[in-house]
Amino acid sequence: MAIVGFIGTGNMGSALARAAAKSERTERLLLSNRTVEKARRLAAELGCEQRSNKELAAVADYLFLAVKPQMLQGLLDEIGPLLAVRRDRFVVVSMVAGKDLRTLHRLLGEQTPVVRIMPNIPVQVGGGVTLLCADGTVLPEERETLRALLAASGMVAELEEHLLDAATGVTGCGPAFAALFVEALADGAVACGLPRKQALAYAAQMMMGTAKLLLETEEHPGALKDRVCSPGGSTIQGVRKLEERAFRAAVTDAVIAAYEKEF
Ligand SMILES: NC(=O)c1ccc[n+]([C@@H]2O[C@H](COP(=O)([O-])OP(=O)(O)OC[C@H]3O[C@@H](n4cnc5c(N)ncnc54)[C@H](OP(=O)(O)O)[C@@H]3O)[C@@H](O)[C@H]2O)c1
Known about the structure:
It is a single chain. By secondary structure, the protein is α/β, with parallel strands linked by helices. The protein contains twelve helices and eight strands. β5, α5 and β6 form a beta-alpha-beta unit. α3 (53-59) packs across α4 and α7 (164-171) crosses α12 (247-261). Bound molecules: NADP nicotinamide-adenine-dinucleotide phosphate. NADP nicotinamide-adenine-dinucleotide phosphate binds at residues 7-13, 32-35, 38, 53, 66-69, 71, 74-75, 95-97, 118-119, 121.
């Protein structure tokens, strides 16, 4: 059981705090936010506590930092001295984009156990992917507790930090690419006469179901495609069109372009 604190209850902080509120590992959940009312509202909804940044910094076993990158320095100026005098064990968990473990250590001190996480937008509905990189001082049981705290937000995947940008090209940017695909599928159905609302709902559900099938069966996507394409049928005609328009190459290049933008 752990005392879990979230500094910053915006989009990401509130989504992950909601997940932590569902975890049996959470003994106390503490929320703080610059606009206090926002944290107060969420605390009332989740039945947890709204406190100040400093109170969280003094007591949280897992202290999540969920502020925008440009706000990090100011926040650490405020809470850094409190973290520095703590003698009990605690882990700082940063989701601040672009701040690597080395930078976080420089800002927080070399001795502070630090975990970097990179959630994506679908954590808001429990279908996200949160990438997790821990420094060498974070204990296996602490990483396990973190995975449990975030489990209700979706998949939590540990990886080495040098792979984070490649993975983010899929998990972080992917929701935009997937949304484009859903929209384009719906446009096709609308062009063929289906009302827009139904077209969007069917396309999104189809994407979710296909993703679920691939995850649960671990079937290769190419094999699933082959199963759907009956000889002489309609699906292979659609696949032929997608290949003609270099669909797969375009998607692969989209991920590489996103990865290259990181540097
Ligand atoms: N959104 C994404 O898809 C995504 C994905 C991965 C990582 N991230 C990272 O997650 C972090 C949060 O992003 P977000 O989209 O959740 O941003 P957001 O919605 O703007 O939330 C940031 C929150 O931090 C609060 N805040 C700012 N300074 C503070 C301070 N000194 N003390 C306490 N609270 C403070 C803000 O309060 P106010 O209410 O006063 O503005 C706001 O509620 C960012 O570093 C971002 O890079 C985001």
